[in-house]
Amino acid sequence: MKTASTAISNPANAPRAFALRRALLVDQRGEDRTRIAHYLRSAGYQLAEADSAAQALEACRRHDPDLIFSAWELPDRKGPEFCRIFRTSPRKVYGYFVLLTSDQDEQDIRRGLEAGADDFLDRPVSGRELLARISAGERILRIEKELRASNVRLQAALDKLKEAQSAIDRDLREARKLQQGLVRERSGKFGPIQISLLLRPAGHIGGDLVGFFPIGKDRVGFYALDVSGHGVTAALLTAQLSVHLSGASDQNVALRAAQTGCDAVPPAALAHFFNNMMLEEMSTDTYFTMIYAELNHSTGAVRMVQAGHPHPMLQQSDGQVRRIGRGGMPIGVLENPIFDEIEFTLKPGARLLIASDGITEACPPGGRLLGEEGLEAIMRTNAFLGGHAFLESMAWSVSEYCRGERPDDMSAILIEHAAGSRPVPLRQT
Predict the structure, then answer these.
(1) Considering the entire predicted model, what is its pTM?
(2) Is 8 strand, coil or helix?
(3) Which of 16, 60, 115, 283 lies at a CB distance of 3.0 to 4.6 Å from 80, suitable for a disulfide?
(4) Across the chain, what does the average pLDDT equal?
(5) What single string gives the DSSP state of each residue in 274-308?
């Protein structure tokens, strides 16, 4: 005992971290309590002592000890019960709890651990054993302090990230308003032709764009674009493309030739223009798909280019649906692509739907894609609806199909030839 007592009372052998720590000794035994108290004070602890659990709880409230040594048997309650109460008390820092044991068996030790004890020390207490428990407790307390400091720094970093994210969200909300403003008109009427637009980004901003503009007195141009990727990069390219396809003839690429008295740029030539622009002027791996078409609203004649965009769906007045085009190559991928033009007639009572892959590739978790077959089914089911009512019903059907999980932008153009009345096919029951 003398060697152990000398070792623990020697400042050179006691860890420097012990200084300024607060300890609490809860014991009613005189000699053992005196010995432990001496060891703790020699180790540099500010020591508080208590005879019972009630006194100890009051001392905890006053002194907030870092290290607690408690006898198993106390006048008013068992040591494990006192430990359980101590663990439920509000504290700013962790307290290392050691139970002093005498004849406790394995079940007692298990109850002590369940109550929240960190360690056990057999009586009679030796200085060497006490020093070992103190060293273990100091390691735990030091690690807890470092973790607490790391949590404080992490929380501060998270707070800064939240502030930055809030600023980004505000900017993206404003960007969404600006992007939605790129589509100035959501519908237009040209003679018997009615055009309706749907544009719904998956996030704040997206890479889809739809629109139309008049070409002379008897023609109208309409387009649908889908830029690869999502977010800011796709949105910026979409904004630039919208300038080239705006209603202003001095900016619209398709209408520039018309200013000199020549005809508007043909659909395939417009696709080649954009392809050259992407490869020569854009320092990016981004590409986009496109449908661009001219429609003569007097005759219903359509001249169209399909550049990698999903197939347009042509629904006749009898409700039958067929796909238009052969797919084509995306814009901005190959130096010398082939863009085929398609010509057909939109007859009275018929309608043409151009939808982005955010619609045809909608998919429930673990399920199959909606596909063009699913889109055809939606068109037949909603044959009695037109204009924005049809587009909203289609958007609702797609969202229901993918159970609200929509990772891609959703856009569409509906062109309807309203001359005459379009009969609504009824199912036979």
Answers:
(1) 0.61
(2) helix
(3) 115
(4) 84
(5) HHHHHHHH--SS--EEEEEEEEETTT-EEEEEEEB
Distance between terminal CA atoms of the chain?
Answer: 101
CA distance 321 to 324: 10
Whether the Cβ atoms of residue 210 and residue 413 lie closer than 8 Å to each other: yes
Cβ contact 208:201 at 8 Å: yes
Measure the CA–CA gap between 223 and 304, rounded to whole angstroms.
10
Amino acid 149 reads A
Instruction: Report the C-alpha gap between 179 and 242 in whole angstroms.
Output: 10
pLDDT score of 204: 58
What are the strands, taking DSSP E only, across 346-397?
A: 351-355
Classified as helix, coil or strand, 406 is coil
Using DSSP, state whether 250 is helix, strand or coil. Answer: coil
| Confidence at 181, pLDDT banded by 50, 70, 90 | low
Q: Are 187 and 387 in contact (CB under 8 A)?
A: yes
Residue 301 CA: distances (Å) to CA of 193, 221, 293, 342, 412: 12, 12, 10, 11, 20
- Token duo for residue 360: 């045809």
Residue 349 confidence (pLDDT): 93
Look at 216 and 247; give whichever has higher pLDDT: 216
Q: Which helix (H) or strand (E) holds 429?
A: none
Give pLDDT tens digits for 318-348.
Answer: 889 999 998 899 999 998 899 989 999 999 9
Only one residue has tokens 């009898």, namely 318
Q: What are phi and psi of 323, to 5 degrees?
A: -90, 140
Task: Name the one residue in this structure whose structure tokens are 């209408």.
Answer: 255
- Residue 19 contacts residue 43 (beta carbons within 8 Å): no
Whether 119 contacts 95, CB under 8 Å:
no
Measured over all CA atoms, what is the biggest interatomic distance in the chain, rounded to whole angstroms?
A: 113
H or E stretch at 369: none
In this prediction, what percent of the chain has a pLDDT beyond 70? 84
Neighbours of 236 (CB within 10 A): 17
Tell me, rounded to whole angstroms, the distance of Cα 414 from its chain centroid: 32
Residue with tokens 């139970």: 99
Domain architecture of the chain: domains with CATH:
2-150 (3.40.50.2300), 183-417 (3.60.40.10)
Mind giving me the DSSP string for 199-211? EE-SSSS-SEEEE
Token digits of residue 74: 């106390």
Pairing relationship of beta strands 22-26 and 313-315 according to DSSP bridges: unpaired
Q: Which of 7-16, 250-259, 367-376 has the highest mean pLDDT?
A: 367-376
Integer Cα distance of 67 and 22 in angstroms: 7
Structure tokens, 149: 């400091």
